[in-house]
Batch of 4 targets.
Target 1
Amino acid sequence: MAAAAVIAGCSDEYLPGPDNGGDGSDVIKLAGEINQSSVTRVNDDGFADGDVMGVYIVDYNGNDPGTLLSSGNRGDNVRHTFNEAAYRWDSAYDLFWKDKHTRIDVYGYYPIGKPENVNAYSFTVQSDQSKLYDDGTMGNYESSDFLWGKVGGVEPTANVIRLPLSHRMANARVTLIEGEGFGEGEWTATKKQVLVANTIQNSVIDLSTGTVTPSGEPGSPIIPSKTGDEWRAIVVPQTIGAATTLFSITIDGLPYKFSKQEDFTYVAGKMNNFGIKVDKKTPKGDYTLTLISESITPWENDLVSHDATSREYVVVESTPGGLRDAITAAGKDYTKLKNLKITGKINQQDFYFMRDSMEMLQSLNLKETIVSGQAGSRSFNINQEVKEEIGNIPDNAFNEKASLVRIILPDNLVALGDCAFRDCINLSCAIIIPEGVKYIGASAFLWCNSLTGTLSLPSTLEYIGGGGAVDIGGAFDGCHFSCELQLPSGLKYIGHHAFSDNSGYYGNLKLPEKLEFLGDFAFAGARNITGDLEIPQGVTIIRQGSFQNTGFNGNLKLHDGITSIQQLAFQGTPLKGELNLPKSLTSIGISTFDGCDFSGTLVIPSDITSIGDKAFAYNWRLMGILEFPEGLQSIGAGAFAHCRSIEGLVFPESLENIRYEASYFEDGGAFE
């Protein structure tokens, strides 16, 4: 009997594998990709044959994520090797789902190592990063670059799980630019060297979050990797003090030091760019170095990784309305062109030409392009003059462009028009919205269900559109991003369905203080966003389904200026603690708090006139005596159903209706 009990237990917990009668559909299958901009080359995922990443897989405990441990997880630092010929990641051994219901968190990092402590993994960047890839041995630049990624709350599936990895170190990029005083060919012949000085090269990494912390003292200068007049070095994220040398630069044997008068921070996951002009002052070789550009930008693909060659972009320079002619003049057939980089200017006509006539276009690089078009003509709840403006990608620019796989957006972008990339079903790159963008239109990326990497929003963003019509929806509705969702502090408007139908967002979402409008079902279905939720002062109506079936499991903070909480607003969200309803609240919609987990005494505000069906259903921890205010006219069917800890009820004379609904939906009595 004991043996039978053990066997029965195993059959409930584990699914049959291929070795014991299964078909292999229960094997956990992964694919890795690097979130970076492919600016000069077109990379499928950034990895090359033989690359190895380490993977940890952690089971959920019911509805709660498990804790990543150094050992004892479902998968512990499992080697996954990229097989370029088969275009897949081969696991060192098969990992199986626990059962048909248990979700998992997947953590990955590259290059693989031997972490003794997953919360304090020691990692060192190399001092000589000029050593290149050699006969299968990774170059020092690449071995210094630490990548990390997480996919949270993955449901059991037979499909491949995409694991987007992001750069967690910083990148120092110095470009020396020819100035005045050089004769013809002299600049090219001049010997130049850049060293990155005064950086701490040891670090400790928390593999549960990807956070990199410098450890120890600064080491010897880093010798960067060099391509042409560009030097790149991998640097541990850290702050260098004011007036401390950042770079030692040698021009034709003469040393120079470059520093800043204020503290400088190498930002994790970003390229820290410096353009330094070199002027030759005398025939003997005295030089003046001048900083002419400085920026922090998304990470661009590295020119030396794996010593690899990749498919090149076809580069054309266009004038507004002249893209077709520019491609033809370059001797290319636009109907067969797959990888295109545009410099110069393009307008709305050019966008529609690419959409309708470039049937095989897969990769488009607009980083250096000045764009113009009409943006926002279909948006709801916004007043703006519709006209073609510089910096706009127009409405419907690539609407239903199924061939498009990769896009690099322009540096000068201001607005992404409505339906700009709607239903681009094969668009699968990381989406990095550049700094300067203020407006993202309704349906901008609606139904782009192959988008599984990181969504990066700029600090300048003010408006994210959304709509309720059949053919127009939320800006990112139906995308499958997997990242911590971070909203810019200046964001004022989040439209209907803006981020709905995406369970890949994780972390604790903080709504911006300047937010004024939060649309219907804005975050509905974001099951892995957890923690507390605070509604900003500018939001006075919480619209229907805004947070339906999200994962918020902390406290809910509602300010007293909120006048209405509409139906389904928090339905199925496991919010805990005391529920303090706003003093100005006048109505509570159908199933507003249905299935939450509030506790403590519930106080009904004095201005409430209606409480919808199932408004507080299944909040069995709510307690005390409910005193309903004068002016309350109706209490919906099942409004307090299964709130079994409520001790008493006090009704007002104004109450006209306590509903009971013995219908198909089985709402039942208000207090059943």
Target 2
Amino acid sequence: MKKMRRIFASLLSLVLILSTVACSGGGNGSGENTNPEIKGVGDMVVEAGSEIDALAGVTASDAEDGDITGMIVIESTPALEFKNGKAVPENAGNYELTYSVTDKGGAVAEAYATLTVTRQTGEAVVYKQFDFNSNPTIDNKGWNVNIADGVSASGELKQGAYVFDITSPGEGDGDIQLVKSGMALKPADYKVKVWAKSTENTYAHIIARDENADEWKSFGGAFNVVIGQEITPLELNFTAEEEGSAEIMINLGKITPNPDNPDDTTPENFVVTIDKIEIYEISGEETKTPVFTNDFTAANENDVIVSAGDGASAEAAIEGDAAKVNIESYPTDGGVWSIKTDIALTDITIEGGQKYYYNFKINTENGQSGECLVESASLYDACRVHFNGFSAGAGEEIEVAGVFTADVAVEDPVIRLQIGNPSDGVTSNSIVIDDVVFGKVEGDLETVKTIDAFTAYGRGTANEANPDYPWMTFNGTDEDNEKGVGTIWNENGSFFYRIDQGAPTDWLNKLICGYSENPLTLESDSYYTVEITAKADKNVSCGFFLNPLGNWDPRLSERIDFTTQEQTFSFTTTDTFVTDMDFEMLFQFGSDETAQLGEVTIEFSNITIYQMRVN
């Protein structure tokens, strides 16, 4: 509403200016009168009963009349009485300020700001200061290190991972191992994904040993798997025909894939880091039946509809047997949700409890990432059944696909692409969409995924519900997105978040304080200031949000630019709560820039929350 009022006021001002210019004789000898300009206007926050100087730092100038700052008029909605730009608002709330100035030729300039008036409060007191000096318990998730006698190597849990410091790899692959015994099996297919990296390229064998066999026997193995210097998943697939148990072995000792080339072998003096190990148990069968397809050969302008906000401009059309979205400009203020592209699912009703799938092709002129949602065309996230992400390089055709079970019914579903943040240097784009398939999934196929992460924080750890450790990460790969890997730990009085693999979408590299099992609870009738002191080993940016659990309604929404020099950031809420509320404090790092950084570590030396109680 606020933005619409400003747009209307701007249009009215433009009409007045054009009318004045056309009717006036001008003041510069050319028959034209230059528009005046107002600078320095910005949003403000003040406590009720305190004086605000709305003209501080504000100037107005005109090419013909020079400095006309003294002619600025300020109007407020709700009304405030200004004298020489100063006012004392007594009531808390948001005030929309309109600055206007008229030059001698009659041309008008306007500028806008929001004045937020908070309730009167007492002194700020420390509400919560996070202690990063403690030593929380780390669960090894059943994985243990085996080092053969005489081998110069070590393996230990540290820095949120299993870290192997290998001076010499020994004489055989089993001389250095990470092993998990007693893994229960049922008749099913299994997949093991080891997310690992090494300071020098090396090899690994990943083997599933049958613990119930009378003699040494394996279910299968992945041999001579390369561990590179960037974190990647090393994958083992095997099948169990009956119930039993397996021992999973990750062998990092001496491996020479080709005996005729002894130089191609495990190196010396290197470090292997394993962030997490994912285990999939896949049983049953399923069939996919399409209920809707669209290859856009029969042009219908309603098949794809685009809406753009926050200063963006975009339109859609059916061209060359495909849907085409032309983005003329990206948002000047906003985020990934600013440009919405709706792919119509005509005559489809989504049933609650039913499993569905979809896939379609995207080709982008310039690199683009965004969100892919299945939700109500009219109700948006109030009736959403699926959330996904996508990322395509310049000129690259990708397939966007997803499988989900609808938790509610949707009568007017669309596949909605939310596009806003462009790749670095991109100002416009063209996106082609084709071969849309949407259908039902039937059968009893079940995939159970277990994530063994080696951090002391978050769900599934010994500290899951400990209010002193309300931290966790969310990685895109945790939900089988293509990218997003990171971990957290504390050391020497600081808290560290290491992004081992950046992702192009913000929610795929996320540091979180507060979640359903361990919320960040803030008391009612108070304002809060969050103070953060941190640095990073590379310049990196994130979105910072203080958001109520279970709903997207951020009470703080800021950008933080971390640098290699330690900085302190401070953000204060501007509204209070009727009751105590549970929050999540989010640091969302994913972006095209983050994805190109490689490994980056952010060190937090202090995070303190201050409370100001309302008088």
Target 3
Amino acid sequence: MTTAPPIERGLDAEGLATLLTAELAGQRGDYRRATLGYLAMAERYSGAQLAERATLAARFSNDILLLEQSVNTWHQLAPAAEAPLRLLAGLALQRGDWTKALEWRLVLAEQGQHAELALFAELALETSTDPLPLRERLGSYLERATPGTHPHYHDAVLAMAILEAATGQRRQAELRLDQLARDHSELPALWLTRSQLALEADNPRQAREAAGRGLEISPGDPRFLLLLAQAELMLGNVAAAERHTSALLDEHVGNQELRLSLANLYLEDGYYEAARRLLLPLVSSDEPPPGAFYLMGIIAEEEDEVDNALLYYRQVSPGGDFLRARLRAARMLIEDDRLLDARAFLRIERLRHETRFSELVALEVELLGEAGLPAEADALLNRELARTPNDEALLYLRGMRAWERGDIEAMERDLGRIIESNPDNAAALNALGYTLADLNVEDRLAEARELIERAHALEPGNPAIMDSLGWVYYRLGDPERALPWLERAYASMLDQEIAANLAEVLWVLEKQDQARRVVEQALDHFDEHPRIDALLERIPELAP
């Protein structure tokens, strides 16, 4: 082999071995190793298809940073490819970076792809994202773009109008939509946006007119029928609203979820009779959806028919509304000065639904706390745990209540019982390990690390556990090892406690600018940020 000529085409031995190893690793479920192998070969051979394969493996690895690295490599090797751009936009949204997500969507738009900018703007507003930076960035894009060169230019104009209206520039938004109506009056999305903005501005007549125009262009479109119903309700025209909702139901015969949604629409505006008319066919059907009983309970409660409401709430079977129904029922009785009845109701429900026993006990504990009866809540927990001493959910709840009171010994006792009976309870392992690390109990940091590492082995993709792992390494005096874990945790879950931990480690590593950016983002994103506040008290220089 030493005298063999060099390989000038195809794979050499190292390349072949790396790819085979990556493929076998993927088949065995070792997605991290598979990703790293494909990435190495993608960079070596400048192969976009290998980077795509790396991305596929990374999506199963539960490592958000590795996924970002793979997608970025794919984009660099295939800058015109649509899929990596959409993935990059999605990853930015996942970590709450709406401005970066918009940047990636605008790259798609510049390439002539449909970037769904109007939908993006609506989603941003639904999540209470600050619309001003998005408006400014989209404005600079529109200054450069022209309708003739960008096939989906109108989508950007619609998005801009939505953001302008949300930032107080309603007149400017109206002018944009007027111009678009002259040039693209055939677009259903135009009239959809006009109607939605008019509803938000409490202008139901204009909303009705715009929705009517949209329905002419797109007959039977359920979005316009729904907008028309909303506009009529705002105008107090219940009969007209019911005609539109009846048309919707005629188009979607048997759609129980739609009927529930429409009933909820009437309920929110206080039109109980109209809501009841929609719900009665559901509750009397052979297989009534649990949500129908839940909404009927709300109607009865709003009409001060407490016993009828209780009857409906009890009929909500286990599912999405099960606990909400019991919570509303119990709160309703407490507000009616019937605390004993509320507790009796929950006790009976625990007997009726044994599989939801722990959740119903936790619900009663919460209500007793709200009523200013913490001693009663503790007594309930102790009593139920005396009957079911190995109930992990209740032990965890009692342990966390002890932690809130500062009784670490009691917390450790309950979490220790969980771990003793179930060594694979990742939540208990992580909670105990993180508490020991956070308290910086020097002679127990090694124990804390072992607990957290066990939790991570059980749930490697859990961002809370990644945060704990980074924090315990930091407490052990290894901030370099801590940093990538905290970065992964923060990339996976925008959380003020993780942000505080990450900022502190960055500061210790003399990455001051990055640390301040993390603090600034957390202060902007979270209404309450006690961990960030505590960090700034200790390190005032971190303030942005």
Target 4
Amino acid sequence: MFCEKCGKQLPDGSAFCDGCGAKVTQEAAPAAPAKPSFFATLLAKAKAIHQKNKLIFPIAGGVVVVAIALLIVFGILGKQVSVKDYMNITTEGYDGYGYVDFDFGYTSFGMRAVGDKDVKGYDEDLEEDDDFRYMEKSDVSKDYRDNFKDAQRLVDSIEWEITYPEDKSNGKLSNGDVIKVEIKCKESYAEDLGLTLQDLTFEYTVEGLDEIVELDVLSYFDLVGEGYDGYGKVQLKCNFSGTKHIGGLVFDMTEGESYISYHYEDEEWTSSIYPSINTDTYNKSNGDKIEVSLGYSEDTFVESAGVKLINLEKEYTVENLKESQEVDLLSYYDIEFTGLNGSGRGQITPKQETATFGNYTVNLQNGEWTKNGEYVGYTSVYLNDSYSLSNGDTVKAYVSYSEYTFGQAGVKFINAEQNFTISNLGTYATALSEILSYEDVVAEDMQFVSDYLNENWGAAVHNHWYGSYSKQSVGDDMKLYKMVLTTPKSSSSYNKNVLWMIYSVTISDNEITTPTTYYFAVRHEDVAVYVDGGLYAGDYSTRYSGYASYDTLYTELIDSYNLNIDVSE
């Protein structure tokens, strides 16, 4: 049987415990006794020590037993070592890009293993000395040399394994991440030293990482336009002057510059950031969109300075360019196409000598431009084709000028190129019905006949150069008698057609006693008509002597040499 108080085994039937003196009130069960508690075991050991040494400790039995039990407890507890206390863990960097460094205190743990209970964890001063694994026995005091080799063997067996959160790695850690640390060693070596190792596996929560600062570099730049709308130049310029400390970087900015300089807080060398305009910077107009970007990634400065770049691309709108003076120069020139289809001509001529546009003056004759009396440049006005033109041809009129010169000067030419499709050139007549207007030709022809009669009456009326004619008389009844449109019978003739204008008039002289109607023919070669039906009779006309009979005139002049095409009523 066993004492219920101290757990000492007693002879069956005992009334009192001879160990602690407690009264035994009931007999223990014959079955195997329950395992005594930890403290009951300690008290039993203490009682036994006291009985053995009662002459040495002449103190009241109960007090001695308790004192001995406490000594045993603290001895056992003193052999328990929390290994994680000897792991030095430090963090550095920025939230999301942090590093954790694990440094085991080999010397600190080694000194604890040899028995130095004052070393309760990682001791930075001890770690600055030699590594315990490579120390000599003589390097420690005599009090700790007995266990030195065993402790050194234990320390040398230590290694550890780090498990990071999923999708994380060292250098990409954030505050709040939990890291699992597992320290491994030969625990049997620890048992040889009487040590009980605890906390070989534990978790570490990351903290103390600095916050990342966002930086919008392009917010410190404005798009500045210079010059005139349509011909402006744009560039990026810094809009701030001064120094800004952002994260671990120092930025030095000067308003109006195309860059900003920076350096790390603990370094002196500097570098610069230049935003890039991704399009041509010239010949811009108000309202144009300009794409700007930085040649950096968002993470360029994150790990080194805790600065994250944002908004690496930005769209600017061009504005504040001065308005250019718009000039429609071609409107100050006449552009004409004359002549016949296939051989027409184009001509461009100024409507006036000079023209003024605001502060600008142009001499339309020679194309010289001045502004407030100062020379600006020259313009020329051309037709790209001026000869052998036909109806349906397209001819371009354009202004030739230096775009850079006039753009910089603030002159913007509009409608500087215009196409003209020719449709008004004359076409050779093929029928009298095409000729709608011929009054001008008739008037010229009648004058032609009158002049002939007045200049040479004999040749005009009697078809010879001699004779004496008096009492010459021309009636006032001259009129257009007939129109005959013909083509030459000869295939080798260059003439396209021939228009015969026949005029009748009453004539008398001393040989023509009775007034007689005479017929005069005026021949026009290569006759053409315009779109409006107007007649082009050419520059060459032939007159013939008069005939007293139209039929005779027709037979001798027309029918003999031409194909009759069309005869008017």
